[in-house]
Design goal:
This protein is of the alpha+beta class. The protein has helices spanning 75-85, 130-142, 164-177; strands at residues 22-35, 46-54, 63-69, 105-112, 122-127. It has a five-stranded antiparallel beta sheet with strand order 3-2-1-4-5. The longest helix has 14 residues, at 164-177.
């Protein structure tokens, strides 16, 4: 069998990978500016394609591709990206050099995209403004970041984390509101909603 030499020196992953949904520090690996295709909703409009990769953590190196179409109704995504890099976005015409973004980092929220050819890839749901991203990164380093999606702080604490006297007082208050004698236990059938 004949041998074949394939040169992958300049290979660029234009599809992207799937990483668990969440917030990640991303690095800009490559950029490309081309007009949208003739079959798109906005044919011929400039589009910036971004090759991003997870910059740290267990999914480091996994790639994600984002596309920023420069149509008026989609500019909010470009503004969010630029603000994520710390680039000011005044309400005026800007001259940008996407090649200058290579190697820069920003924080993005990733979600699962719709399946394409039976494969799910991650998509950028949004970018954090630089100041928020810096605060998030600082909390990650200090270990004070909430677990999960960051919404845990809005959930009530499990009863077993409360001191027993506080838990008993809460039960008594709920029982009193519902006209249930205080036995220490709550019968959900007795609660009037």
């Amino acid at each position: 069998m004949a041998r074949l030499i394939i040169d992958l020196t300049n290979y660029v992953d234009r599809f992207g990978n799937r990483v668990p949904e969440g917030r990640y520090l991303m690095r800009v690996d490559w950029t490309e500016v081309k007009p949208t295709s003739k079959t798109s909703k906005t044919p011929g409009v400039p589009m910036i394609t971004l090759g991003l990769s997870v910059a740290e953590g267990p999914h480091e190196g996994q790639s994600v591709v984002d596309r920023l179409v420069q149509s008026p109704e989609a500019l909010f995504r470009t503004v969010a990206f630029l603000q994520g890099l710390g680039i000011k976005t005044p309400r005026q015409r800007l001259e940008l050099d996407p090649d200058a973004w290579k190697g820069l980092t920003l924080v993005a929220d990733l979600v699962d995209g719709a399946p394409y050819r039976d494969k799910v890839k991650s998509e950028v749901a949004g970018y954090l403004p630089k100041a928020e991203a810096d605060a998030w990164r600082s909390s990650q380093r200090s270990g004070s970041a909430p677990a999960g999606d960051g919404l845990d702080e809005f959930l009530p604490a499990p009863e077993d984390t409360l001191p027993e006297d506080v838990a008993q007082a809460e039960r008594a208050a709920v029982n009193a509101l519902n006209g249930v004698p205080d036995s220490g236990d709550i019968n959900l059938d007795d609660i009037a909603l």
